[in-house]
């Protein structure tokens, strides 16, 4: 950072220092009026993401005691890559808190003795100075207590507000508190807790080793990671959210930031209800994507009608595909092919390809026309000749693979491995089939470069013939050569 910019930063920081909270003197315990002192006392149940404490069955207020512990923990942000997160309750996002409108909350913020820094908490559900921040500034090895009354129902973000605030939030210091309306929320079958936040690290995405917070990147709002629940793949594969066909699913979704707004979307689902901005009113039905600001939240409810893997994304999609903002909901149960048939037919379609200008494109076009004519005159040829398989495989590649592996098959170094001249793919036919069928995650080396990403399984999207075609295409393009893949080969691996 240059000197002028650094000084400007200090001036700005001192003029907004009041937005961050420092130490204040303790006032002594509040004298509770007799009616409040007489309320039943209960200890709140806290849960780590993606879990949510059970709905509150009480229909009268209580005095709820919350003990939340701040801990600084070094753990995985991406495979092979560690980060020192600052946490509320040991997880990112922090523990989910659940109270009821009218509850009087006795809040204890405990800062673990191993912490290096003081921290505090600003709960957006609190009415009062700093949302609790001014009362909870807590040194390592200390505990602060304050009391608040939950006046307004809704889903609220809480976060640390110790200077520099973007750094405390950027290290993972946020979570959600739900203040249930007096009558509770309508019951659903499954409730989940997902929160988005960005991380600014000195090294690149999945750069390996222990990564440090990068202040200039944070000031420029250039995150290295945009994550759901604090790490790449936190709700993917065997950690996916789950539901059964016919169930109603509710996601309490929040954005810790510190800077980005999320365009929250579940691929293949429609939100039946959205409690926009975490308020108590269902402001909209039948929503595709809901926008959730930094320091804001939303409740989305939807019924799952057909089985499959539904992918949760920030629909600012580079964040999903390149920075980690991707999760999965796996729905099991009976198919309903009227609601969703799966791919019914795959026929050759050439459109007005002749419009494509270049000589090469025209030759390709002529070739494709010839192939199409050939298929028409002799349908059995379709599965027999490599050229036909290549032509069909290309269409499949351009629909299903190119977004990650790129049209040139070159991939993106360190993120998506190349298929062009890939020693890994060409070394083992059965393994290549297995990858397309079942997906792949975990560390691999392709042409001397390490990869550790998530390749989604294609078995729900492609049938056996299409898999044979796309594999024939990728193993015969860009300098690769191999025999055509047959449907029998795919079936053999599928049956393993
Ligand atoms: Cu903090």
Description:
There is one protein chain. The chain is α+β, with helices and mostly antiparallel strands and 496 residues long. It has twelve helices and 25 strands. Helix 7 packs across helix 11, helix 10 packs across helix 12 and helix 11 crosses helix 12. About 3% of the residues have low confidence. The chain is elongated and about 90 Å long. The site of copper (II) ion has 6 residues, from loops.
Number of strands: 25
Estimated helix fraction: 10-25%
Q: Tell me, what's the shape?
A: elongated
Overall mean pLDDT score? 90
Structural class: alpha+beta
- Percentage of residues in DSSP E strands: 25-35%
Largest sheet: 6 strands, mixed
Bound compounds, each kind once, are: copper (II) ion
CA-to-CA gap between the ends? 56 Å
Total helix count?
12
Q: Unreliable stretches, pLDDT < 50, 5 or more residues?
A: 6-18
Rg: 27 Å
